[in-house]
Amino acid sequence: AQKVTQAQTEISVVEKEDVTLDCVYETRDTTYYLFWYKQPPSGELVFLIRRNSFDEQNEISGRYSWNFQKSTSSFNFTITASQVVDSAVYFCALSEALSDSWGKLQFGAGTQVVVTP
Amino acid sequence: DAMVIQNPRYQVTQFGKPVTLSCSQTLNHNVMYWYQQKSSQAPKLLFHYYDKDFNNEADTPDNFQSRRPNTSFCFLDIRSPGLGDAAMYLCATRGWGDDSYEQYFGPGTRLTVT
């Protein structure tokens, strides 16, 4: 069963618009980690953020912000004032600390973000 | 800068001709992973090493093998590539024991099978 769901396949915005990427996860572990990775056209997966299951504090880093809500099993990602350089595929991923101690990442299907000038 | 390096970035091989992809890291991480990523799909874990301990995913074909001669290097061998093995191959590393669960990825090797 899919453990990480990214329902949005592609989002197109015009530069300076905000864009929110949805991520819903499923796990029975009480300790788990959630991640967002960015994959630009060059192909490299770039780590953006890690969130622990016991830390529901939202986080802001520059134009990026993340909203973690355990009650709805969601870990959403917002890019504020988008730029063309934000065009990429964004992956949400889950690592279950108890079920898999090797840190295996379970990726969502990814959301393609297209930012046009 | 510490990093994960993959060579070559692009590899073309013929159907059935063995090919080896390489990965090196300067992060001194214990765990190294190999992923296969096909077009418009999420990365799929093939196997990983914790130091020299090898762990194969249950659905990884026997055609894929791996070697890790030391902490810094890891190789992916495809014994008889088929057309379906054309993909991006990503190497990743992760530290251990420092409560750091994020994986750091290399730039990938894009494999074409002709």
Quick synopsis:
The complex is a heterodimer of chains A (117) and B (114). Chain A has 117 residues and is mainly beta.
Describe this structure in words.
The complex is a heterodimer of chains A (117) and B (114). By secondary structure, chain A is mostly beta strands. Chain A is 0% helix and 50% strand. Chain A is built from no helices and twelve strands. Chain A has strands at residues 4-5, 10-14, 19-21, 24-25, 32-39, 46-52, 59-61, 64-69, 74-79, 88-96, 106-107, 111-116. Chain A is globular and about 45 Å long. Chain B is mostly beta strands. In chain B, 0% of the residues lie in helices and 51% in strands. Chain B is built from no helices and eleven strands. Chain B has strands spanning 4-7, 10-13, 19-25, 31-37, 44-50, 53-56, 64-67, 73-78, 87-94, 104-105, 109-113. The interface between A and B is medium-sized, with 21 and 21 residues.
Strand content of chain A: over 45%
Helix and strand composition category of chain A: mainly beta
Number of helices of chain A: 0
Shape of chain A: globular
Oligomeric state as shown: heterodimer
Shape of chain B: globular
The portion of residues assigned to helices of chain B is: under 10%
What are the segments of chain B in which pLDDT stays under 50 over at least 5 consecutive residues? none
Main β-sheet of chain A, in a few words?
A: 6 strands, mixed
C-alpha Rg of chain B (nearest Å): 13 Å
Which keywords apply here?
A: mainly beta; six-stranded mixed beta sheet; four-stranded antiparallel beta sheet; 0% helix; 50% strand; B: 114 residues; mainly beta
